[in-house]
């Protein structure tokens, strides 16, 4: 089943009137925990019988923590019924469909359509800097169907 990630994020943003992943997690009753890890572990999502948790590496800078939280929120929303867990420690393995979907979710959440339309012809590194996201998320957003 193809997930319309753009529409799902748009619905969440309209319903809760925010693009802030921390506020969305609170509204969705997902507990966010900041914990110190080595730089290799960015964060992860885990679901127990009664609760959902997103753990974010507290040693990351503020913008990176926000991106990780948005990515893990994507797992919580898009993959909560899947019997899988995600711990992003190593980058040697090819990115799978679940990771790609979570990246697309983060791009859609953190980059407003209007903002990207205004500057989409600028170099990717400048767009990323202006929007305070990484270049990969800008690429996901620019490659989505609406552009």
Head-to-tail CA distance between termini: 22 Å
Domain tally: 1
Structural shape: globular
What would you say the CATH architecture is?
Orthogonal Bundle
Give the C-alpha Rg: 15 Å
H-E string: HHEEEHEHHHH
* Strand proportion: 5-15%
Strand order of the largest sheet: 1-3-2-4
What's the CATH topology label? Answer: Arc Repressor Mutant, subunit A
Q: Number of helix segments?
A: 7
Q: Sheet with the most strands?
A: 4 strands, mixed
Helices and strands: which structural class?
alpha+beta
What percent of residues adopt helix (DSSP H or I)?
40-55%
Would you tell me the overall average pLDDT? 87
| Low-confidence runs | 89-94
Q: How many strands appear in the DSSP assignment?
A: 4
Q: Identify the CATH class.
A: Mainly Alpha
Report what the structure shows.
It is a single chain. This protein is α+β, with helices and mostly antiparallel strands. The chain has 7 helices and 4 strands. The protein has helices at 5-16, 21-27, 62-78, 97-110, 113-119, 124-131, 135-142, and strands spanning 30-35, 43-47, 52-57, 86-87. It has a 4-stranded mixed β-sheet, with helices on one face.
